[in-house]
Amino acid sequence: MLDPAETAKVSVTVRNNTNTVQRVKTVRISGTALALTFFSYDTTVPFDVPPKSEETRSFPLEPTDLGSQAIGLLPVTVEVIDVQRESIASVRTTGDIRGSLWSVYGAFGLGVLVLTALSWAGALIALARRRLPANRWQRAMRFLPAGIGTGLIAVISLSVLRLVAPSPSAEIPFIVGAAAAALLLGYVTPHPGEQQPSEMDTVRIQR
Questions:
Q1: Which segments cross the bilayer (predicted)?
Q2: Of 51, 141, 177, 181, whose Cβ has the fewest other Cβ atoms within 10 Å?
Q3: Residue 66 pLDDT > 80, yes or no?
Q4: What residue numbers bound the domain in which 143 lies?
Q5: Does residue 202 fall inside a structural domain?
Q6: Would you say residue 207 lies in a domain?
Q7: Are residues 176 and 130 in the same domain?
């Protein structure tokens, strides 16, 4: 758990399986979601790891500005970086970020929510006014952005609510499923040129 109001105690163990000394200079802790990095902390912790051995180092981390960067469950990567600024090794885990809903990640989710609502509103209004394209696939594509946005909202909401952290195994089913449902909905919408029978026509047919 990373709380901007508390100092986190980080302990890193590096095992060197090579035949040369590995010189660690920096430990980097970063959080990503949907292929975007929302926070990153570099801490200088210089130490050498002899061949075929391991070393452990502990250090405090004060993520004071984390509240404005992210919130919820996020994939976190811990990397050890050498003196040439190259990553020696890394490990991925899940972090519980105690940030604000108005953080960059929270604002990103709210922005996606607004854009998705506008996409649905535009598509449904066009459907009600019979202004969708006559071609079925073009009508389906008209609903696609709204479906993708719905999938993104599901992924971000589960993350912010601390239920499921974003990952390819969680993101792809939600986004692809919502996009497919929106495509199907657009595909089966009625042809805009099809006229519904009026009440007078219905009376005449019944007679």
A1: 102-128, 140-160, 172-190
A2: 51
A3: yes
A4: 104-188
A5: no
A6: no
A7: yes
pLDDT over 50 at 205, yes or no:
no
Q: Note the pLDDT tens digit of each residue in 112-167.
A: 999 999 999 999 998 888 888 888 898 889 999 999 999 999 999 999 999 999 98
Q: Which residues contact 128 (CB under 8 A, 6 or more apart)?
A: none
Per-residue pLDDT reduced to its tens digit, 1-33: 899 888 989 999 999 998 999 999 999 999 998
Is-above-0.90 flag for pTM? no
What's the CA gap between 97 and 31, in Å, rounded?
A: 9
Range name among 102-111, 138-147, 186-195 with the lowest pLDDT average: 186-195
Q: Judging by beta carbons within 10 Å of its beta carbon (0-12, 13-18, 19+), is residue 158 exposed, middle or buried?
A: middle
Give the CATH number, domain containing residue 67: 2.60.40.1710
Q: How many residues does the chain have?
A: 207
**Residues of the chain above pLDDT 70, percent:** 93
Rg (CA), the chain: 26
Using DSSP bridges, classify how beta strands 22-33 and 72-82 pair: parallel, antiparallel or unpaired: antiparallel
167 occurs within a structural domain? yes
Our count of domains for the chain comes to: 2
Q: Check whether residue 132 and residue 51 sit in a common domain.
A: no
Domain check: are 19 and 67 in the same one?
yes
